[in-house]
Amino acid sequence: xxxxxxxxxxxxxxxxxxxxxxxxxxxxxxxxxxxxxxxxxxxxxxxxxxxxxxxxxxxxxxxxxxxxxxxxxxxxxxxxxxxxxxxxxxxxxxxxxxxxxxxxxxxxxxxxxxxxxxxxxxxxxxxxxxxxxxxxxxxxxxxxxxxxxxxxxxxxxxxxxxxxxxxxxxxxxxxxxxxxxxxxxxxxxxxxxxxxxxxxxxxxxxxxxxxxxxxxxxxxxxxxxxxxxxxxxxxxxxxxxxxxxxxxxxxxxxx
Length: 255
Hints:
By secondary structure, the chain is α/β, with parallel strands linked by helices. The chain has helices at residues 14-23, 56-66, 81-94, 120-126, 183-193, 210-218, 240-252; strands at 5-10, 29-35, 48-51, 71-74, 98-101, 114-117, 133-136, 155-160, 172-176, 197-201, 222-225, 236-237.
């Protein structure tokens, strides 16, 4: 008789979906994906899916125990630091192994004009001396950082999956779109809107990387918000394949 073990994947990323797609074909593994519910129409992975928060680390630990989860994979966005901290606490309380799936960050290339920022607020402070027409690709959360009076002279093109809510930059247009994005499309956005500075989070991956190439070609500066570190002591997989191997090895190392 096959002993099926339960894996909870904290998802919402392309890497999470690819991990789940690989695991659902494994007869010894049952997978549940948890989505935060911040996107109105998310792309659902195969297998069981739950949507919504857990109520902090305590709630997550309770869910893990109640549903007999054998391993936890944090495959959330690299900037979902609160969820990552909750995962660490919950895994410790429920006594289950935890893995973080994090695609590598982007690396500057010759010709890039990158400016590093430790937060959205720090990124906003850099803008007045870098440009006037900003392509803001940090999503709809955290736009309050760009809504200060000191930025009223700037114009923002805000790209997000769902419409942003106030507070927002005073002068802005919204572009509702979902990646992956093509290089030709990013070139056209920069040309058509006269973009002279790009703001992005260092999310890594290929789906949204073409904007960096387009900015390099247009010789415009890019403000890159650094990602928070993975919590100390948590093992990290760089690819869905590595994460899948960890799951099977961890769950069945002892039979």
